[in-house]
Every structure is written in structure tokens, then in C-alpha cells.
Design a protein that fits this description.
With 57 residues, the chain is an all-beta fold. The protein has strands at 24-25, 29-30, 37-38, 49-50. It has one domain.
Length: 57
């Protein structure tokens, strides 16, 4: 996954509580311009993964 542009405002409609992510904004917002969720054939929530996640420096 290529790095996604980090916006200076929240991406409305995306709630994220992963405060260790580079795109996390206080208030449980996501600043990623877009996100990618994988894998294609997931059977339940436990199998899904946010491929856009990048650990904070």
C-alpha cells in the first residue's frame, strides 16, 4: 500500500480510535485522505484490517 496523503482536517464519516496511527486525530477522527480495508474475502470483523495504518513516529 502506498502512503496516503495526510489531511489537516478529519475525514468525515471515518471513526478511528487507533491513537498509535499516523493518521489519528484527537476526538477519534482519521486524517487519511482515503483508507484501504483488507482482505477481500473476510468472513467477519475479526478478519478485517486497515491497510492504511502507519505507526506514529
Amino acid at each position: 500500500m502506498m502512503r496516503v496523503n495526510k489531511m489537516n482536517h478529519p475525514n468525515e464519516g471515518i471513526k478511528c480510535v487507533v491513537n498509535t496511527c499516523e493518521y489519528y486525530m484527537s476526538g477519534d477522527h482519521c486524517a487519511a485522505e482515503k483508507i484501504e480495508v483488507q482482505p477481500r474475502n473476510a468472513a467477519d470483523t475479526q478478519e478485517t484490517d486497515c491497510a492504511t495504518f502507519i505507526p506514529k513516529d
